[in-house]
Design goal:
The protein is α+β, with helices and mostly antiparallel strands and 801 residues long. The protein folds into 3 domains: 242 residues, no CATH class; 300 residues, no CATH class; 155 residues, no CATH class. 45% of the residues lie in helices and 12% in strands. A 5-stranded mixed beta sheet has the order 3-8-12-13-10. Strands 11-14-9-4-18 form a 5-stranded antiparallel beta sheet. Strands 5-17-19-20 form a 4-stranded antiparallel beta sheet. The chain is elongated. The two termini are 27 Å apart.
Length: 801
Amino acid sequence: MSAGSPVVTTGTRTRAVRTRRWPDVGQWADLGVMVLLVGLALSGLAASFIGVEFLVVGVIGTLLGAGCSVLARAFGLPMVAAVLLAVLVFFLLGGPLTLRSLGDTAFLPGPEVLRTLVDQLLFGWKDLLTTLPPVDGSGPLLVLPWVIGLLAGLLGAGAVFLGTARAWATALVPVLVATAVLVVSILLGVSQPQSLLIQGGVFAAVALGWLAVRARRESASVRVGRQSPTRVLAGVLLLAVASGLALPGARALMGEESERLVLRDHVEPPFDIGRYPSPLAAFRNYVDLGQRSEPTNVFDKELFSVSGLEVGARMRIATLDHWDGMVYGATNDPLSAESGDSFQRVSSVIDNPVEGEKVRVRVRLGTGYSGVWLPTAGALQSMEFESGDPTAKSESFRYNLATSTAVVPSMLHPGDAYAFDAVLPEDSVAADSGVSPLPGALNADTGFLDQARDKWTEKADTPMSRVFAAADYLKDKGRYSDGVRRAERGYHPGHGRKRLSDEFVNADPMVGNDEQYAAVMALMANKLGVPARVVLGAVVPEDGVVRGEHVEAWVELRVEDGTWRTLPAERFMSTKPPAERQPETQEPMTGTVVPPPAPIPPPSALGESADSDLRARMQQEKQEEEQQDEEGGLPAWVGTVATWVGIPLLLVALVLGSILGAKLLRRRRRRTAPVVSSRFVGAWRELVDHARDLGQPVPAGPWATRREQSRKISSDLAPELARRADRFVFGPAEPEAEEAERYWESVEEERREMMRGLSRGQRLRAALSLASLRPARPRRGHGPVSRARGLIRVSRQRLLD
């Protein structure tokens, strides 16, 4: 029993009262520095989140994780108890701290909250890495800093209390935990660091100073004299100089242009825009059919109404940047070689720095619009969905910075409303504008344009002037027809190679509508060395109501400063109709002659004709779930919780089972030792380990004699059992196996006697305690000299016996 521990006398038995092992002053200071370092490390995520709420949540998680370790240590519980407590804290407080966007349900750990927490715990890192930063600072992605902080606090506090045989290792382990958090925040962050001063200089200075203080405290068991203030000041100055030289030194060694390793650059976004067909292939859904009618035609239907834009402004439906020989479609790898060239998840605020006029636009979809393509204008700065399940739309919303195209895979429907902030950049282009070429900007084989290129641009000399010359030729020589009139049905829809070559460029006259003109103009510009792409959209009319008749296709060109400028349809498209007498054909006209590039087209009035298939699939899944419920099956969320919560609980059960199994195996090995005298030694060690698991301060190790140990065990029979063990171990003859078995029975009976009067929780803590499994450390006064003295005492006692 340690000095100062109260002793309670209860008639015939003496028992030590358990004392709480709260941290001392130095350990409280260590915990404070550990929380500070973790906070500095988490600050690196500031470029990934909006606001500072992520840092607040992370620091709270660090404090709570550290608190779990402190409580477990204070009550003598094993580390696994701290882990279980941290898991409980994660689920109980995770909703109120990170899922407030779910509303009032976030404050109770219901099925939806538990499902979201588990989902973000497993896949939150992927959502963060595939979302265009910065993400919403109040959304479910806050689970990521919450769990990082909780885990860092749990491990960091455990490392503070950890003792090793080496003083430098004891001092280093907590610093390594904070450094690991710094590495994780860098890997999950962006290419440009939030603050080199904080993540580099300040973190390094605090970490090195803390390491020095802990190493000095752990290694200097005896100090002579007082610590000089001059030495302290010199140490602080050295740390400041080292931190100040770290940044320029690293730049000198690695170079100014060295790339920062972040996982975002190595994770492919899971969204594939190629699964959705090109809306340009269904352009004839927007043409005037006259007396005819088709279900997909929306010429006279309202697509959407716009407020906040001037008359004549352009609303973009889709930017199509690649021609594969059949259709112009959108890709995840457009012509732009700059960053942001894929469809990424974005939050309510979009980091999209563009100069121009700022506008606030509100859009409401009409009866003629549905699908995945979201009409926008300019360069988006923020997006807010106002109706039609805004949460689902916000989570599935994707935006391409390079093409300024937005999609909502969860589908848009008539009546949906949304608002966005955008910047309308400079949009004019002239024949004398410079060009910003892109390597590999050519599309599929466009050899059919070789002769036309030379013929149409023979009088121009620069790439941009040749593009304008080709536009003039198209407008002058071409004719316009939607193929609606009976005499013009020979002019088919589509913009594949055959339609653009034999039936347009090489035909006399060239006849088509926006679909063919825009495709040929963009392909010709690429052929001439000017990067170009096709845009399907509409020009806002005076009343702000966009109908199918307002939809058109134009071309965008990449100019010298790297921006894309509009070449309007009227600049290259003729409005003259073809001659009256044209060959007729009985081939029926349809707006979806060109097949989609993928077998899973989404529903839309823009040619996305698999609405019924998608609905049927969703209905079938719903019916299967209902059938499972009717047959007595459990709801789906029960299976999800059982899967994702059951696995961690199974791991905890395995850890607890491993502790119990290790103790049972140790007991069996001691009781069946091949040397009979070793069985007495094992029985006595079993009694000592049992007392240590109960929290009694029993010295262990080869430097402690059995009689010394017996005085620290709260058992009346312990001294007698120690003497019996010494007689059999140091006796002149080898003891019999029956004597060893009787000794084991006496030890077992005394172990049961020591457990009487304890509560069920105390017995469980003793069974799961790791005290007897940890190697014994010599206490003060139990070094080599004391060990020798102990051996002399043992020998003397053996002679007396």
